[in-house]
Write a structure and sequence with these properties.
Layout lengths: L1 E8 L1 H5 L3 H10 L3 E8 L3 H7 L9 H8 L4 E9 L1 H9 L12 H5 L8 E3 L3 H11 L4
Antiparallel strand pairs: 1-3, 1-4, 2-3
The structure holds cytidine-5'-diphosphate (CDP) and magnesium ion.
The site of cytidine-5'-diphosphate has 9 residues, from loops.
Cofactor: Mg(2+)
Subunit structure: Homotetramer.
EC number: 2.7.4.6
Amino acid sequence: MTARTFVIIKPDAVAAGHVGDILTRYEQAGLRIVTMDMRTITPEFAERHYAEHVGRDYYPALSEFMTSGPLVAVVLEGEDVIARVRALHGATDPTKADPGTIRADYAESTRHNAVHASDSPESAASEIALWYPDL
Ligand code: CDP
Ligand code: MG
């Protein structure tokens, strides 16, 4: 079934010049870019996006990272897109990410790990509504 998911090319990957390669991987997988833009988010917005992580020991550092510079916010569409994008990204911890995944290639650490993707239909819907309320 065709669905949508929400992706972030995180500030580390933008700074390192990997935007074009990462977008190409989605397109070569047959996924369609519905909309995208570059933004620098505030700590308040980061708390809304990562609400389930607020209060964790790593959250202050995660917030600092996600607000440190421009990121690219993307809505993708395709068959089974939520699971397929998570597979293209690889594991959160890049030392556990499969070879050839975006995180295996570009993540420096479990925090600075290049990309975000929604993990369920519910999170995709709420993240798309948060980032693109007019979509
Ligand atoms: O991004 P993903 O869904 O794979 O992982 P998560 O467990 O939902 O964590 C969200 C994000 O928090 C990660 O992608 C990391 O950037 C960050 N994180 C961190 O900074 N330190 C941790 N120990 C775990 C996650
Ligand atoms: Mg997650």
